[in-house]
Design brief:
Length: 258
């Protein structure tokens, strides 16, 4: 679960160019919940399709998000296998454990500014609270942190369009198998992307603290597990046409329907 979430956090720095295909390289570093180190990723966006190629250690994993088709494909590059997920069905399943009405989200400017990778950015304080029910027990996932947003930078329109389109269909951006075990965490991450999209800008750096909370036995367990912190930065952004087959499962891959 933590590896899947850590890889998903790398997506925070993606920056599609306005009305153009874009390639983004980013780095996420993290600590907590038994993990440390960094994950590098390359993200491609073309309309309402996105692909992320991530490398953590020796493992190479690619994830394709096709919002219009309501499909997510997780590609094991080394073994040439792909898992295909019906995201419409999964969103319905996730909603049974995480109520949209209980989500609290705020992203407020804090008055600070910083130049990152040559872009002038404004600081925003983020707080997202998502209640969930896991194995019949109530718990809460809390995300707090700061993001530096470059408003008016190339890519803001396409960034917003992709994540807003995904949010309307109840998408998450982590491995669905991991989300089944930690639905509140997955929903909180998805809500964070939605908040970024609302700014109309691009997050060039984000520091996020992720903490599970709960009462009773669940509270004790969550206290032992602890939280995690991630820092995500954009390393480079390139604008240029992307081939459609980049967002398709290669013909020589074995596809497993989930």
């Amino acid at each position: 679960m933590t590896r899947a979430l850590f890889a998903a956090c790398a997506c925070l720095a993606i920056a599609p160019a306005a009305h153009a295909d874009v390639t983004i390289k980013s780095t996420a570093t993290g600590k907590g919940i038994g993990i440390s180190g960094s994950t590098t990723s390359t993200t491609f966006i073309k309309g309402l399709r996105m692909r992320t190629d991530a490398k953590a250690g020796k493992k190479n994993i690619s994830t394709i998000f096709d919002v219009d088709a309501q499909k997510m494909y997780i590609l094991d590059v080394d073994d040439k296998e792909a898992q295909a997920w019906d995201m419409a069905a999964f969103a319905s399943q996730l909603s049974s454990t995480v109520s949209a009405e209980g989500v609290q989200a705020s992203m407020k400017p804090n008055g600070q500014t910083k130049t990152i990778s040559g872009q002038a950015t404004d600081g925003f304080d983020i707080e997202i609270v998502v209640p969930a029910t896991v194995a019949g027990m109530e718990m809460t996932m809390r995300l707090t942190g700061t993001s530096w947003i470059a408003k008016g930078a190339p890519g803001g329109a396409d960034y917003s369009a992709f994540y807003q389109g995904a949010a309307e269909k109840g998408w998450i951006f982590s491995d669905p198998r991991a989300a089944q075990g930690a639905p509140g965490q997955a929903k909180a991450m998805a809500q964070m992307y939605t908040e970024f999209a609302k700014t109309g800008g691009i997050p060039y750096e984000t520091v996020m603290n992720i903490k599970p909370e709960g009462g009773g036995a669940m509270g004790g367990l969550m206290a032992k597990v602890g939280g995690m912190q991630t820092t995500t930065t954009t390393d480079s952004v390139e604008v240029g046409p992307l081939a459609d087959d980049l967002f398709q499962v290669p013909a020589d891959y074995k596809v497993k329907q989930q």
